[in-house]
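From the pipeline queue, job 12 of 40. The input is one protein chain; the requested action is below.

Action: predict structure.
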Amino acid sequence: MTLRETIATSTLLALLAFELSVLAILALFPYLVDPGLSVLNSNFYALLAPLSTVLLLGLLYAWPLKLIAREARIRSTLFDRLILFLSEPFQKIMSSLKSASLSETARNCKILSRPRLMLAVSLVVSILLTFIPYRPDLNPSATLVGVDSPLYVGWIVQMLIRPLSQALAYSFVEGLEGSRPLLLIPLYLVASTGVSPSQLIEYLPMVLAPLLSLSTYIFVRYGQGSRGLASLTALFCSVSFYTTVGLWGGYYANWLALILAFLFMTVLLVYSKKTSRLGYAAMHVLSIGLFLTHPWTWGLVVTVSLAFAFSLWRETRKKVHLESVLGIISGGVVLDVVKSWVFATRAVGVDVAGTFQTAGIVQLLNFWPNLVEALLYTHGGLIGNWLILGLGLLASSILRFRDWFERLLLLWIAVASIPFAVLDSYHQARIVYDLPLPVLVSIAVVLFLPRVGSKSLRWPGIVIAFLVVTMTNYALQGIILL
């Protein structure tokens, strides 16, 4: 090894050893007096947490800046020269990144050569993380964690004391005015077998977390094609704030909605490449399921799908994709009207309109305070993960619009950024929660690692190990404080 490789590799190994020590303390001895390692790690995380606000701004709003810069370069020779001068130090690496094949790069990464093993590890890790809040040594009374957990228990209890037909009708009326029936009905059916509602809610995250990791794997595997990248995405998903925020808030419907959202987007990508009746029917079923689980997430997903279909129409001049998505959206609107009429509940459209009545210029003027509140205080500040948002920003800067998989990710970010600017902090946090950040993180690692790590590190793969362990520690620290 060269001197540069020796220093860089030794430093990274030392940091990895430190993070592994913190992981051992948090996982095995969280109730003992801390020797200072985990406190140092959490303080370092808290120190850099404010940086997440800038990183999120870059992630959400780099795209309009690129459009403005492109137009300015066309219209101004002086501005074009300035951009070329400022970007000169990065031209080589950026051209290399833009010409790189994501699948080929992932295939050449040795640490990703066992995708099935990595997927299995991600599923196990996701289960273990969701089990921790209910460990007998940490929670001997098995007290429910999650802000919304008591609400779900109450809804299930109310369904249990009713006959079957009335219980099913109740799921379409209660649960945030009947917006969660697809989650409440299976929970009710399981509870009808004699399982305690509290125990059911306790074990629910241990089912949702691995399913979400599996759905992100399916999304990347069949939407992009690389098993290695898909397995890495599943691993990052298991240690992301999908898990910590889901546990903190008890956002089980949003959790399930994300599972359905990734599956819907998978079918959308497959259908875009080869249309079929089965694919169209699958999108309809997943759309209905998503609507009956979490209408807000459904609204974001179908809007992204519409923007994606419109981009395909402009490129190919084939109307089939646009007509298909419009048909799916129409089906959701009809379902919303029928559901609100039959069960006398508020329509999703009315709910959305009510939310946006409080949005607008006032929230836009309070954009920065709302952003700080959303990232650093809402949901216990768990969304303010500078490491995840920073890697997400790196990935968004190199995604290519000509690739349909990467285009979908770009549009997912762009569509989410529009309402983000005029909403309050709570809804801003929920929008960030619905972004495909684990996918972006894995893309950033796979594309940047060979071009940066191979020049400075003897074993570039240890960067992935370091990132996974570090994110696991941040997740553990958030979970233990629940």
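Job complete. The CA atoms of residues 134 and 141 lie 9 Å apart.
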